[in-house]
Design brief:
The complex is a heterotrimer. By secondary structure, chain A is an alpha/beta fold. Chain A folds into two domains: about 210 residues, 3-Layer(aba) Sandwich (Rossmann fold); about 140 residues, Rossmann fold (3-Layer(aba) Sandwich), CATH 3.40.50. Chain A contains twelve helices and 16 strands. Chain B starts with a helix and ends with a helix. In chain B, strands 1-2 form a two-stranded antiparallel ribbon. By secondary structure, chain B is mostly helical. Chain C has one domain. Chain C is about 70% helix and about 5% strand. In chain C, the strands form two sheets. Chain C has a two-stranded antiparallel sheet with strand order 1-4. In chain C, strand 2 and strand 3 form a beta hairpin. The chains are: A alpha/beta, B mainly alpha, C mainly alpha. Chains in contact: A-B, A-C, B-C. Chains B and C meet through helix 4, helix 9 and helix 11 of B and helix 4, helix 9 and helix 11 of C.
Chain lengths: ~400, ~280, ~290
């Protein structure tokens, strides 16, 4: 009986696959959606994401499309506003009939967009959100091609301890930002304490607010504690202000933080202060796949108006590139038709593909997704100093440890 | 209606409520730049009641509105000492203090936000918006409204003829705060997630903008304004990177060409039966 | 430590003073809250950066930033304020809000949203006074602020143009009857306001050495608080209230309350508004609060 069922399912699947391929050939477009912040405070990230996706679209179509069908990526700007991101999701899934969505970028946007993804039964995969538990709260349609900060800290902290022989650290963070707050007040104090390092201000971490220009009082206070290292919970743009002030006040102590620190801009802030942070991609990474990606996309970004002339692709460009490539792979492998009447089935196929993904070949190595919807992939603990990132440790975000 | 427009109409309904909260206070000549604070109080309180105590949404919204009204009255009394733009600045300070408080309110997540609300339907949002709008229309036909306008036009004269200007002004603050709280409660249950950044200065300004753009002398103005503020940024998408700048340009242009707002009494009369009969 | 924190507080206070004074020139004289001042400040910072990045001297950067911000301020006056002069006060306030949105987005599109950083350590020089480290830029910021406040005070209190400004602030209709040109004086108020915002922007961006298109928003809100505390109608009020708030912020942080910093600042503002609505240095209560 069981055998019969297996056989039947197998047969059905083959039939679906074949008919899917035929239809896809007759049909002409595979629609994928993307939500990126092309205006507002993260405009550069959103615009770089846009260039990356346009390039991917062209690459795929120049190579003959997906199973003969043309790839069409519908990119919408959310201005880094959560409400707009949620409405973008409704538009993409409801009006534009996309098969799956890449984005949104910020955790605040994910918090309100992922519930819509579940309501609309369409996969949504964030390229940047790393606030703990956001995808987990919105299963089964929410994914994040990023790693929970709590897992990353378990590797970055021991490296920090060993390299700088740190006995004590002090914390400063951006209290307005959720990711920064959870890194600085929840994750780091615990991991540091477990590693036997004294957190000098665990009871009263020093905070500032997004948009603050002056953090001089905070740095003077930190300096008074005389720590061996500084934990910065902030995105790179705010961290630059902190690093500048540290340098000005002569607090040249090594810095550790989460993935939001990774950016070429932060390397210019205080080149003599070492910055340790986790990353899954950085532009000067030394692997063939990453090198090709950078060689392809960087000139396009630099030629785009509204982007700086010295821009480099960021981790989030790499993540969104991987995400859409996964969707394309799903379309190819699971018999997605792209036909209007099979939309719900197609979306489910993509979700199942994502959930059951094994060893997808990403920039940092094989990728799959955990039960909580977050990516399980290799990451690097990188150290930025004198203007460049260097990989110091490689790890995998699987809960059990070991290789990915 | 597509789900996309359903989402936008939910936003319009929520903003319409927020705009009405400013409209009521403005009717007595007081400008509040802190109504996002009342909205935040309503959002957090209503969410707490539905998530932690499993109250039905309607009951939670009513309690949140009453609590915000009480705070509105408490804020309204000292506000009596202030006039014009100084009152506006004081309310701005109040709004920033509420936001800053929520950021430190770890019991409900602090900057990490608060989850667990059940999604509310578009109909519920508009039932509330419509209900409160009808209430305002009824109010506008009452003697009380004449008193409010009298306080708006000339407070000293209103006082001289024996009107209780204190009760009128403080009452308007209380009513406005309650409406803002309903807006907040519905916002929380539409997006099923709230964080302090949702209730900052930008939101307060949006409320005022909706009223002034739509027309601050007539109730339906708030609806027109709310619709524009939500739909314009969507309709301007073709301009790509310049869409928000273009929004700013349009905002200035509308204010320059219709300083009384898009909708005013003459236009409203022409659009309704009153105009046709005349 | 405390002395070092006071130096920090004074520098921050100087920033607030300049921006607050920029607000109060328009607000104290015309009773209009020009929301775009935060963005004029930001624009000044970017213009100053553009000059410094070409390795041109600081005074030239100051001049370019001040003139640039002044020019935009005058454009705002002509387009957003002048046609709406007789409208309720909210309307011109919102049209300046329109300009602040426009400016943020233009700067984002021209210079990008990433923080713009000075390439070298040209302004990082400092010296020690006992245990206290003082940056050369901190001295420049405080010095230029005092000089500019002095210059504005002289202009307002001792010159015919200043008399016109004060007359308009007192009563516009009477001033007009006495032969004061309202449009010329309004122009002057906006122009000086722009010059100050531009100067503040360039000083601050060079001191902190990293700016984004959105730095004007929070500084602007704080500066409004400083203006109110000092008294919007008095030039010297800002010079008193700026350092007061700067030091209050710094001490809140120093004694473990960094999370409640904004509560303290805005709480202080509301307290002052209730106890002395005319501000610490304000004159009679009668000049406070036109109808909206």
């Amino acid at each position: 009986m069981l055998e019969m069922r297996k056989l039947m399912i197998g047969g059905l699947m083959t039939a679906a696959l074949m008919s899917g391929m035929q239809v896809a050939q007759a049909q002409n477009t595979i629609n994928i959606g993307a939500i990126v912040p092309s205006s507002g405070p993260f405009a550069e990230w959103g615009r770089a994401n846009t260039v990356t996706l346009k390039m991917l679209e062209k690459q795929v179509n120049d190579a003959g499309g997906i199973n003969g069908a043309k790839l069409n990526i519908v990119i919408l700007d959310d201005a880094a506003k959560p409400a707009q991101a949620a409405n973008n999701m409704r538009k993409l899934a409801g009006d534009d009939k996309v098969l799956a969505v890449a984005g949104p970028l910020t955790s605040s946007a994910c918090e309100v967009t992922f519930p819509v993804a579940n309501e609309m039964k369409t996969v949504s995969t964030s390229q940047a959100s790393s606030k703990p538990g956001v995808a987990k709260a919105n299963r089964p349609w929410a994914f994040r091609n990023t790693i929970d900060e709590g897992i990353l800290a378990k590797t970055s902290v021991p490296y920090f301890k060993k390299t700088f022989s740190a006995q004590s650290v002090a914390i400063i963070y951006d209290a307005k930002d959720a990711v920064s707050t959870s890194i600085a007040t929840k994750i780091m104090p615990q991991v540091f304490t477990n590693a036997g390092i004294k957190v000098l201000n665990a009871d009263s971490p020093i905070s500032f607010n997004t948009g603050d220009l002056d953090v001089s009082a905070q740095i003077t206070k930190l300096k008074g504690m005389n720590p061996d290292g500084i934990v910065i919970g902030a995105d790179y743009s705010q961290a630059i202000t902190v690093l500048r002030e540290m340098k000005r006040q002569g607090l040249n102590k090594p810095v550790i933080g989460g993935t939001p620190l990774i950016s070429p801009a932060i390397l210019k802030a205080a080149p003599e202060i070492p910055v340790v942070a986790p990353a899954t991609f950085y532009a000067t990474m030394d692997t063939p796949k990453a090198k090709k990606f950078v060689a392809d996309v960087q000139p396009l970004m630099r030629a785009t108006s509204g982007l700086p002339k010295d821009i480099e692709p960021s981790m989030y460009d790499a993540n969104i590139y991987e995400t859409v490539s996964m969707y394309i792979d799903a379309v190819k492998k699971t018999g997605v038709t792209g036909k209007a009447d099979g939309l719900e089935a197609d979306r489910t196929k993509i979700r199942d593909y994502m959930a059951n993904l094994k060893g997808y070949d990403g920039f940092s190595g094989p990728i799959h997704f955990g039960e909580d919807g977050d990516a399980i992939k290799n990451f690097f603990i990188v150290q930025g100093q004198n203007g460049a990132w260097q990989t110091k440790v490689t790890g995998c975000s699987a809960a059990a440890g070991g290789a990915c | 209606m597509s789900t996309y427009y359903a989402g936008l109409f939910a936003d319009i309904g929520i903003l319409f409520l927020g705009a009405m909260s400013v409209y009521i206070i403005l009717a007595t000549g007081q400008l509040s730049l802190g109504n996002a604070g009342f909205m935040g109080i309503g959002a957090y309180l209503a969410s707490y009641l539905t998530v932690e105590w499993h109250w039905p949404l309607t009951a939670a919204l009513i309690v949140a509105a009453l609590a915000a009204a009480l705070i509105g009255v408490i804020v309204g009394f000292p506000a009596l000492r202030l006039k014009g733009i100084y009152l506006a600045i004081a309310t701005l300070g109040f709004g920033e203090m509420v936001r800053s408080f929520l950021l430190n309110f770890d019991r409900m997540g602090g900057s990490g936000g608060f989850h667990g609300m059940k999604h509310v339907s578009l109909e519920t949002i508009w039932l509330w918006a419509g209900g409160i709008f009808v209430l305002i229309v009824l109010l506008e036909r009452s003697r009380l409204w004449l008193e409010m306008r009298a306080v708006h036009d000339d407070e000293i004269a209103a006082n001289l003829v024996g009107l209780n200007t204190t009760a009128t002004k403080v009452g308007a603050f209380g009513f406005g705060a309650a409406v803002a709280a309903v807006s907040g409660g519905l916002f929380a249950h539409h997006y099923v997630y709230i964080e302090p950044a949702n209730f900052g200065f930008e939101r307060s300004i949006d409320f005022v903008l909706a009223v002034i753009l739509g027309g601050s002398t007539v109730g339906p103005g708030a609806l027109i304004g709310a619709g524009l503020l939500v739909l314009l940024p969507e309709w301007l998408r073709v301009l790509a990177d310049w869409r928000l700048a273009a929004f700013g340009v349009l905002l200035v242009l509308v204010l320059l060409t219709r300083r009384q707002g898009i909708l005013d009494k003459p236009l409203l009369n022409r659009l309704t039966f009153r105009g046709m009969r005349a | 430590m405390l002395l070092q924190q006071l130096v920090n507080g004074l520098t921050l206070g100087a920033v607030y003073t300049l921006v607050a004074l920029s607000f109060s020139l328009v607000m104290g004289i015309l009773s209009v809250l020009n929301i775009a001042i935060g963005e004029l400040f930001m624009l000044g910072g970017y213009l100053g950066f553009a000059v410094i990045a070409r390795e041109l001297p600081l005074p030239l950067a100051m001049a370019v930033a001040m003139i640039g911000a002044c020019a935009v301020s005058v454009v705002i006056q002509k387009i957003a304020y002048e046609p709406l002069r007789d409208a309720p006060l909210i309307t011109p306030m919102l049209s300046t809000l329109g300009f602040s949105i426009i400016l943020q987005n233009i700067v984002t599109n021209v210079w990008g949203s990433d923080p713009l950083q000075l390439p070298s350590e040209m302004f990082d020089a400092d010296f020690m006074v006992g245990p206290v480290r003082i940056g050369v830029m901190q001295i420049v910021v405080i010095g230029v602020t005092v000089a500019l406040v002095g210059a504005v005070a002289y202009l307002v209190q001792r010159t015919p143009a200043g008399r016109a400004l004060r007359a308009i602030a007192e009563n516009r209709d009477v001033a007009r009857l006495l032969g004061v040109s309202v449009s010329k004086t309004t122009f002057l108020a906006f122009a000086i306001s722009g010059l100050l915002a531009g100067a503040a922007g360039v000083l601050i961006s060079l001191h902190y050495a990293a700016i984004t298109p959105y730095i004007g928003v929070d500084i602007g809100l704080k500066a409004i608080a400083v203006m109110v505390i000092g008294g919007a109608t008095r030039v010297w009020g800002a010079l008193l209230a700026g350092p007061l708030i700067g030091i209050a912020e710094v001490l809140t942080i120093a004694y473990g309350g960094s999370q409640i910093r904004d509560l303290v600042v805005y709480g202080l503002m509301i307290l002052i508004l209730l106890l002395r609505p005319q501000g610490l240095l304000g004159g009679a209560r009668s000049d406070v609060g036109q109808r909206v």
